[in-house]
Amino acid sequence: MCHKTIKAPKEVVTAYDVQGMRRLVVPDRNPIDTPGIFPKSQFQRLKKEAHIVTLKDRMTMLEEAEQKKNQLQLESEQRKEMLRKAQASQKAKIGSKLSEVERQAKAKNLYLLQRSFDLLQEQDNRVKRANGVILATKCRAIRNAQIAEKELIEKQLQEENRRLDMMMEQQRQKEMQAEQKRKEEEEMKKQIYTTALSDQMRMNEIERMIEAEKIEEESRMINKAFLAIQKEEQEKLKEKKEMQQKIRDELKKANTELERYKLIQKEEQRIADLRIQKFMQQKLEREMEREQELALARAAKEQEIIRMRNMQQRTLDLRAAMDEMNALRIQEEVEKQWRDKEIAAAKAKKEQQEMLKTEREKQIEDLKKAAAITLARDEDDFRKVAKVQKQLWEKEMEKKKRRKEEAEQHRIDLLKQINEKEKERINMQKEKFEEGKMLKFEQERKDQHVKEHLKKKVSQLRSKQVPEQYIKDIEYHIEGIINAK
């Protein structure tokens, strides 16, 4: 089953522009390729194919095959025995064919006769010498096969090392290409970020200019309102002066009338003067109070206008400072995040390189250990095979010695019998010339049997897939043995 790594959520930042607030997704610096993991079945298959079959494994396989063959032969013998028992009660009729058991018995008898004949041929000195040549050639072929197998294993190990080196080099080239691509993407991201930041700063500058124009327009409107208020105050002041002048005219007229009528009654004049003075004093006080109120109102309006202008200027400055601080803060946060990601990426890259270096050293050490173990196993297997071959050779020599002694005794007995028979034959047929021909014919027949027996041995070697060069060498030596007198 293939496992997949869980991806982290994308990073999102907030950007402010003329259209409002936008949420932007920050591209990931790491590649999107997920690491591949082999399934268990494929891993087991690769592990099984990577196993090197040693000489010990081959010996074990041969032993298992031999045991299986013996088991099958034993089962076959058991089935044959059951058939013999089942057909034991059957009787052959006149003119009927041989039963299966009789055919098997006949074949067995023929096999025993052929085997006896082969054993008799094995007693010939030429066959013994040929057996020695065949055994020596077999040993040499086995030794050459072991050397070739060892060279093949070393060649396979070298090819595996070259393949691993090539894989590591390809991995390194791939990582270098990925690193170059990542750097190019980072440069492109930096350019995009710089362009976006410049556009945002330009938009902020345009907003500040628009805000300044708005404030300037408000200032013009306030100045216009202030001029209107001043004009209204001037009109009111003009009306006041006209009213004062009118009052003065009325007072002058009243004084004239009073002077004209003062002779009428002094008391009335005095009372009238007192009333006029009181009226004038009250009116003057009212005018002074009104002037003070108007002056205070004008001063309050001017202070309010100045305060509004100062407040607007402070608001404008505060907004510009806040925009600049927000832009700087966003830039610092983005730069800090970028620096943190760069540090984390460099740290991860360094850890990955260290891990790759450690794994490579471990692989090299494992390969060295595997080569040493394989060499030690080969040496151990060679010593075991040599020991087994030595034991087999000693047993063979012991058997040869016993057979030689038996053959010598048999030869002595046979010579004794031959001498006795020869004496009888010489005594009985001294004058017969055919005796020499019979001996010559017997010798030729015996030579022919030896040749056929040796050819059969060579055919058996060919059937066992022995290399042709060794067979030709054996044939050459056998021909020399046969032709030797």
Automatic annotation (TrEMBL):
Keywords on record:
Cell projection, Cilium, Coiled coil, Flagellum
Q: Where in the cell is it found?
A: Cell projection, Cilium, Flagellum
List GO terms (cellular component aspect): motile cilium
* Claim: Coiled coil is one of the keywords in the record: yes
Species in which this protein is naturally found: Asbolus verrucosus
Q: Where is the Trichohyalin-plectin-homology domain?
A: 120-468
Coiled-coil intervals: 55-89, 143-191, 215-264, 341-432
Give the family, as the similarity comment puts it: Belongs to the CFAP45 family.
Keyword Coiled coil assigned to the entry: answer is yes
This protein is called: Cilia- and flagella-associated protein 45
